[in-house]
Write a structure and sequence with these properties.
The protein has 21 helices and 3 strands. The protein is mostly helical. The chain has 2 domains: 2-160, no CATH class; 180-516, Neurolysin, domain 3 (Orthogonal Bundle). 39% of the residues are buried.
């Protein structure tokens, strides 16, 4: 009876935290999609207030006391040592307490005002970054970046990651349980084999451009209203339930969960680039499916979220790249696209379109990178971040180190810092340790697919028929339904029986592009 009472109190606090977070997310979503330019200042005040309340609630000392009474204290976050606590709880409540303990420790270990100070410094740094990128002036941004590195380091130290482990603490915030050393072990073969494959493709296309196929049909205007019509048709075909979500447009596509039955995605329409909207829509739909298919039993609790950034990216990338850039996918989709753009695509076959959406070539900009070289952009950022936090690389030397790594990994060098070290927003916000999750997502995704293929041998036939029901059900039952109940490594092991590995991803990439480019 006592346990029930303690849990009830914890759930009540958690529910308020979740409601405050979702309320902040609505303000954020509105800012990205609808807010008139003059409204920015007031919106910043509104957001700061709600986020402050959410942080305050998440760090309420009462949470710590209640968790400790249930056997989940900081020294034993799993609650396993206390038979009257952890062991006596139903499994889902035990997972709830573990997740809450983690969130509480993260919030409560920071001194009062630290999170707000870091957020404020982040807003200033972000504004400085926008200006510096426009003027191609890294030196003007460097002091702000230095401040954010210091904030991130101090925060990791408060969390208990000191000395050589600081960067592990930053990684752990996005991918619980993973350390830099393990990522380096996974990225090693990725670095080597992807660079080599990219080099072989470059040699082949330099020898004869016909290896790439004709993409000139992409260089035409594609009416953005028709693009929006196609995007909606596409997401519905993939299984997006528009009664539980919506599609809007924003400068940078994203997915946000505003409630259990309110999951929104955005995409970006550009008249001169039809692929941008298509693949952003598929990518964000992948994120949305994850959120939509979390077990209803977890609704309104801190467990009703994706387990980590890496597992979340595994889903968006599985849908965008593995399904969305497959031959089977365009067998079904291309006639539908052609019906909306008959003039532009009159002379184009499904196969030509498939080849066009899989064109590989080294690019300077991460978000424009193809499926093959994308991970190389991430490896570059991981290696630089690691050096930044080991003290081996001063902030001022970043532009030089960036150019050198680009040359090593992709064989090209940016002429300006705007196209190099200044291209991403993440560092200005203090989001260090975030980038690796994009490439980890590629690895997780192909490990999951290996298992999916065993259970659904004809999944590609389904895709070619435009039917995603069985695939979605498999993903729901094996991955999505769990929400945050398992750690990433445990979820992966439960589904695949394997530890995190680069092998399935490399095999997939090498097979696909060897065939595509006739290597
Ligand atoms: Zn994503």
């Amino acid at each position: 009876m006592k346990i029930k009472g303690l849990l009830k109190q914890l759930h009540a606090i958690d529910r308020e935290c979740c409601l405050l977070e979702k309320t902040a997310a609505i303000l954020q979503w509105d800012q990205e999609t609808n807010l008139p330019p003059e409204g920015v200042e007031e919106r910043a005040d509104q957001l700061a207030l709600i986020e402050g309340l959410a942080n305050e609630r998440a760090a309420d000392p009462k949470i710590g006391r209640l968790l400790a009474e249930l056997g989940f204290d900081s020294a034993d976050p799993s609650g396993s040592a206390n038979p009257s606590g952890g062991e006596a709880l139903p499994p889902v409540e035990r997972d709830f307490c573990r997740a809450l303990r983690r969130r509480y420790d993260r919030a409560a270990k920071l001194p009062p005002g630290f999170a707000a100070d870091m957020a404020r410094a982040g807003s200033l740094a972000q504004a400085a970054w926008v200006k510096a990128r426009r003027k191609n002036d890294f030196a003007a941004f460097a002091p702000y970046l230095g401040t954010m590195v210091d904030f991130a380091r101090t925060r990791a130290e408060y969390w208990g990651f000191t000395g050589g482990a600081v960067y592990d603490g930053l990684l752990d915030a996005h991918e619980p349980g993973i350390a830099a050393e393990e990522i380096a072990r996974l990225f090693g073969p990725l670095r080597e084999r992807l660079s080599a494959l990219l080099g072989r493709i470059r040699d082949k296309t330099a020898a004869g451009p016909e290896a790439e196929g004709d993409r000139s049909f992409l260089n035409q205007p594609y009416d953005t209203e028709r693009q929006a019509r196609y995007s909606r048709d596409l997401m519905e075909n993939l299984g997006f339930d528009l009664r539980r979500g919506r599609l809007d447009s924003s400068a940078h596509p994203f997915t946000t969960t505003l409630g259990f039955n309110d999951i929104r995605i955005t995409t970006r329409y550009a008249e001169n680039n039809i692929l941008s909207a298509i693949f952003s829509t598929i990518h964000e739909s992948g994120h949305a499916f994850y959120e939509m298919d979390i077990s209803p039993d977890l609704r309104g609790t801190c467990l009703a979220e994706g387990v980590s950034m890496g597992i979340h990216e595994s889903q968006s990338r599985l849908w965008e790249n593995v399904f969305g850039r497959s031959r089977a996918f365009w067998e079904y989709q291309f006639p539908r696209l052609k019906a909306i753009f008959p003039e532009q695509l009159r002379q184009v076959s499904a196969d030509a379109f498939y080849r066009a959406v899989n064109r590989v070539g080294p690019s300077l900009i991460r978000i424009e990178a193809d499926e093959l070289s994308y991970s190389l952009h991430i490896i570059l950022r991981f290696e630089l971040e690691r050096r930044l936090f080991s003290g081996d690389l001063p902030v001022e030397d970043l532009p030089r180190a960036w150019r050198q790594s680009m040359k090593e990994l992709l064989g090209i060098e940016p002429e300006t810092d705007a196209e190099g070290v200044l291209q991403d927003v993440h560092w200005s916000m203090g989001s260090f340790g975030y980038f690796p999750s994009y490439a980890l997502g590629n690895l997780y995704g192909l490990q999951f697919l290996k298992r999916l293929r065993q259970d659904l041998p004809d999944y590609e036939g389904d895709i070619a028929r435009g039917s995603f029901t069985a695939i979605r059900q498999w993903l729901r039952e094996n991955i999505y339904t769990w929400g945050r109940r398992l750690d990433p490594a445990d979820l992966l092991f439960k589904v695949t029986g394997e530890k995190l590995s680069a092998a399935p991803f490399l095999e997939y990439i090498e097979t696909k592009y060897t065939e595509l480019y006739g290597l």
